[in-house]
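Hey, I was hoping to borrow your eyes for a little while. I've dropped the whole record in just underneath, so have a look:

——
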Amino acid sequence: MLNYIIRRVLYAIPILIGVNLITFTLFFVVNTPDDMARMQLGIKYVTPEAIEKWKADRGYDKPLLFNHGEENLKQQLTNTIFFEKSVAMFMFEFGRAEDGRDITQEIKARMIPSLAIALPVFILGLFVYITLALFLVFFRATYIDFWGVVLCIGFMSVSSLFYIIGGQFLISKLWHLVPISGYTGGLEAGKFLLLPIIIGVISSVGSNTRWYRAIFLEEMSKEYVRTARAKGLSERLVLFRHVLKNAMIPILTGAVVVVPLLFLGSLVVESFFGIPGLGSYTIDAINSQDFSIVRAMVFLGSLLYIIGLMLTDITYTLVDPRIRLS
């Protein structure tokens, strides 16, 4: 187990370097440092002197990847925008945004609102989706199962934006049950989070219920299920005692890998509901073309996804003792 974790950590380093390099290249293919300076300063009134000063103040006056003006190879590689802006992230030093605010402090502050939405949606959604899937499987090949699948397809066919806008209009604007948007700390946050959490669960109920239903149906066709029935066990005991237990590996595949990404929040939900989380932080950075924030969020997302894959593999051994990681 320890050797496996060490190998995966070592594999993650070149992956993160590659992700940083690709993100860096794509960003500067679209926008040069001069373009970034013009956008921040204002295209109409900007001057060449102001552009050079803006770049010098933020470290964008150096070559992108290779500095030909330096004497030795080390300085040619290190005295560049890529090295100074990207290598520090491996020490979790994300630098400052274009407006001067510390990105690391912003991430720490915005992580709480993101988790306040993402964790309840994840936990409640997992319970709801698995329960509905088991219910449909219990009544498989009946009208309940048929119309349940039809409803799931209907939920899948509707954009999540419809649920957000419809929920805001119906529950907030017409019924005035919860605020339409905004956020505050403490216990008062509940009234701002209730609607986003409900919409987050409902918007994914169709696809996730169908996915778990397919997993349970696949297990129902296996030999151990027929053996359990032959021993006289009721359908309820077969479903909950045997099928659910043996279906935990594919369930964990989809669940555990998502857990680290919960810290990144929801881009759409946070933006529409005015939640100051990491999702809205990323959207605002993209709109303002703040490369420092975008680079930090892409790096953080890649790191958390790799951690999620490692956790998934490790939890396999807890669910199925037959699996051993060498």
